[in-house]
Amino acid sequence: MKQSIALHAGPSPTENRARFHVFLTAPACATGLVLLINLVFDTLWPNTLSPVIALGLYFIALMQIFTAYPFAFILILPFVILHASAMFSLVTIENGADMKEVAYTGYPTAATSSYVLYALVFLIAAVLAYTYCKTRYPVDLIRAESNARRLTGIVRNAPLFVVIVAILFLLAVGVKSGFPLIKGTDRFAFRRLEADPITLNLLNLKFLIAAILGSSAVFATSRFSRRLHHAVLLAYLLTSFLFGDKFFAILTSGSIYITAQLLLTSETVIVRTVAFIAPIALAAVVAVFSMTLYIYSDYGKTSLSEAFSKVADRIAGQGQLWFMAHKDTDTIVSFKSEMVAENIRALVNVPSSDYAFDHRLGPFYFVEKYYPRALYAATLHNAGWVSPTVVFEAYGLVIFGYVGLVFLMAAAGFVAGALSYYFSSALLTGNMFSILLPAYIFDATFKVMSQGTLYNIFGLSAFKAYTAFGLLQIVVAMFVRGSRRHQGKDTPQVTN
Hints:
By secondary structure, the protein is mostly helical. The chain folds into two domains: 3-139 and 306-336 and 389-424, no CATH class; 142-304, no CATH class. It is built from 25 helices and two strands. The chain has a two-stranded antiparallel sheet with strand order 1-2. α5 (77-94) runs antiparallel to α6 (111-136), α8 runs antiparallel to α12 (206-218) and α17 packs across α22.
């Protein structure tokens, strides 16, 4: 058990009120002012340098927020990774990358500079919501440690055993049918045409698997057991990579596992750990990018500039929908009631995904508008079509306009922050199975933010999954309570 569990009592309400003023300090105000000036300049005189400046200022703002709110920041990290990947994509687009899925070539606009501000609105709202919930409803960490110590061996080791079985199952499937990465099969085509339901769920529930394994590792009873958890997670992510999963998806899953390990430490330890991990993570990203360049150069047969251009075109898929929405939207305030009504109607249809496709909602709105051929090819054969991201922001811009999107991003940030607290408080109960439902809801929220499909969190199918995970948690909780009661009866009573 980590000895630092008793060190973290969390900041006091007074400290939290003082920390709020981090957004009003001179450095933070300077960052915000320069971002606004950069946006105005980029709007009036579009250029290729302003997107790079906006990206650099975004990372400066991230460091300022992280310093003030370490716990909240690491819980929101998957969303930060999502937004950062879109920003890198937008920088390549504004430097002339081709967006194949929308049949358009990028050029300098204010798309990146504006997107950075919306991402910061979301992040600030999220950390404030998390901090408020944490202050209002603190977690008893000493009780969590006591609960973890009293878990039976079956419950404590169940997540580790289940994930090992999942890895062996996936490896067996890969050996039998061939791993998509090795045989060159597109991952979308594999999942739609070849994967059975079990394989599909084991690949899609990466976030949840990382969360429950991370929760189990936190309360491991020995250093060997904790290291075994780390090794099993690495094996699972590497196996997912063989099935063609993107580095982005693997990175977000790994981040939530690391988050679980940091929640029981002090803020000083978090800052020190992140400072230690950041260079390693950067080196890993550079290594992966270099290997990608080598592959796209036809293993060294073509020039580096040609390979870089191909990679840039691939990266452009992350931010292309925001670029197109920004290019074609000129309304400051808007409310397209019919589009809102259609998305609400999708929630009560089963399956909601079919309704969204038939009525061209979410990502299908953009594909239908800009490149119907890609939609047709993706539907029939998946034809290498990139999974759409940043749909929530782009779709929100189309429906609500530039001002309306500010309120939408703030609302989404408050929801994400509250769910982050729900997720962390469940993780700190001492029973790793308590993480199932909040982890699934958190993952569904992440998918809503990336794909703009509201039914992922509010649809009837989503509530079926909530019910299933909720019932499983109740069953395990009853089993644990019963085993603890039995354990208490068997323990000799000491009297004075």
